[in-house]
Amino acid sequence: MDLYFSPLACSLATRIALYEAGVEANYLEVDPKTKVVQKDGSDFRAVNPLGLVPTLRTDDETVLTENAAILQYVADRFPNAGISAASGAERSRLHQWLCFIGTELHKALFVPLLDKTAPQDAKTYALSKNLSRLDYLENYLKGREFLLDHFSVADAYLVTIINWTMATPPIELAKWPNVKAYYERLRARPSIAKAVAEEFELYKAELARHKAAA
């Protein structure tokens, strides 16, 4: 399977899930500005017209988009990895967390803060309206190791999003000690440590590439 990704973007969650599952995949880096696939110089929009990562091409050539859908696909495709959830209430809880992370944190809070073209009013509004989501997470994580009763793709997604606080100074994790402890604990997990380290090096190379082209 092929995973189209950009360094340290939300696609990092799928890399983590694949590492947890211990499966091989082709990792195809997409420049977030030019939408060029670095391996062959092709236009990524020929694969996903929206130009968004992650995008996954499965072994049967099916193209999947949207982070939550791809994470659930990986979890179900490799059940022995134990990163999915059983049927019934537990699976619904997994869906709940994937939706919460994707809408309340990823899109509502972090996207405006990370968007260099967003006006300051938009960033201020995002902070004033959505920091309460971190308060909710802080209360939920008290006494918990993971979002479910075991590590799942929801944790892979959440740690990916929390990692963005490195680039969003208005969000200081020290204000949410349970979230901070959760993040630091999961960053030490082998699959996550490996994925973050690899993509950080690619991110630095991406920055250098853009600087040279400017």
TrEMBL record:
<dbReference type="InterPro" id="IPR004045">
    <property type="entry name" value="Glutathione_S-Trfase_N"/>
</dbReference>
<dbReference type="InterPro" id="IPR040079">
    <property type="entry name" value="Glutathione_S-Trfase"/>
</dbReference>
<dbReference type="Pfam" id="PF13409">
    <property type="entry name" value="GST_N_2"/>
</dbReference>
<dbReference type="InterPro" id="IPR010987">
    <property type="entry name" value="Glutathione-S-Trfase_C-like"/>
</dbReference>
<protein>
    <submittedName>
        <fullName>Glutathione S-transferase</fullName>
    </submittedName>
</protein>
<feature type="domain" description="GST N-terminal">
    <location>
        <begin position="1"/>
        <end position="82"/>
    </location>
</feature>
<feature type="domain" description="GST C-terminal">
    <location>
        <begin position="87"/>
        <end position="214"/>
    </location>
</feature>
<dbReference type="GO" id="GO:0016740">
    <property type="term" value="F:transferase activity"/>
</dbReference>
<dbReference type="InterPro" id="IPR036282">
    <property type="entry name" value="Glutathione-S-Trfase_C_sf"/>
</dbReference>
<dbReference type="InterPro" id="IPR004046">
    <property type="entry name" value="GST_C"/>
</dbReference>
<dbReference type="Pfam" id="PF00043">
    <property type="entry name" value="GST_C"/>
</dbReference>
<dbReference type="InterPro" id="IPR036249">
    <property type="entry name" value="Thioredoxin-like_sf"/>
</dbReference>
<keyword id="KW-0808">Transferase</keyword>
